[in-house]
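My hope is that you will study the protein record below before we discuss the fold together.
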Amino acid sequence: MSPAELEEFILRKNARTDTWDSSVSDKTPADIEGPVIQDYHERAKQTGRIDFAYKSKEDTLKRLGMLKNGALTNAAAVFFSGAPLLEVQMAIFAGTERLTFNDIQRKDGSVQQLAAIAEKYIRNNIRWRVVFDGSLQRNEIPEIPMDAVREAIINSFCHKDYKSSQNNTISIYSNRVEIYNPGKFPDGLAPEDFIAGDELSVKRNPLLAQLMYYVKDIESFGTGLKRITDECDIAGVKVEFRMMKLGFAVVFYRPDISASDGDINKGNASQNKSIEQVTPTDIPDTPTDALDTPTVTPTDAPNTPTDTPTDNSNIDKILSYCQEPRSRTEIQQFVGLKDKMHFLEKYLKPLLDSGLLIMTFPDKPNSKNQKYVRADKNG
């Protein structure tokens, strides 16, 4: 064996018992600021994926297998506090090549923080369209499905090679959005193997994946690429998975704005819907279940109608379902709606504005623990 082949053999042999994320870091629970662990514990308990009561930061970390001899595992260090120089680099390029850029940013933080920052950067820098379907509400649709984008971002941190000096990157071109992580795809496998559902997950960072699984950042192991593909198929968006020498990239292709409106918004014309293009500043901040990230208030946010929404069938279902506090995801799944922005704009925001639903954390509208309950059921 060559030295490289020998190293690869040893890594494979120890993959199940001696992963990077299970090793002890130089951080302690004191390096995790504020109520981060308690908030995480509450989220995980709400999903039903852990069942023990919160006692202390140290107790939760120990029960999760993230504390060894008083020190955090690498998984806990990057997920909750951010390892030294854990960064994401984000850029907007003027054309289709990595030449002239219109914006470039570099952010550091924990995996939780960086995933939220990366999602928001893409959300605010892609095109959206508004479909008026005859109701009082604006139906705002992104050119790339945001659920697929978030899945790709979470996967990029889950499968990153944290020993690499490279950063995760977000690159927005005129014709595509690329989400890259420095972590080679498993040898002998291809993305199609996982999209078809024929292969089990190969976890580079199993403890980190477990932390994400407890709070439903990932739904189940090995399904991420299939979920991305399915969301893009529904939206009619082309997605490509690139296996690179030093990493892996998910590429979402943006629609050609030089095409006719009928091509860009295929299917809408036949439904007699009026369509207008909007810029990112037209997109209002709405309560989500995303991880906490600094809130930016759009300068051109539209006035939201305060009338009660008119789709009585779904409205009645939502109000009945929310006699107990429910998360955004739970409500959306209950009424069977796939498009998150459509659900937020047509149902959740109008119900909140009309006072029929209220937030369980009204002072923190973007809290990851946010739930919604009928106003007359809140004491």
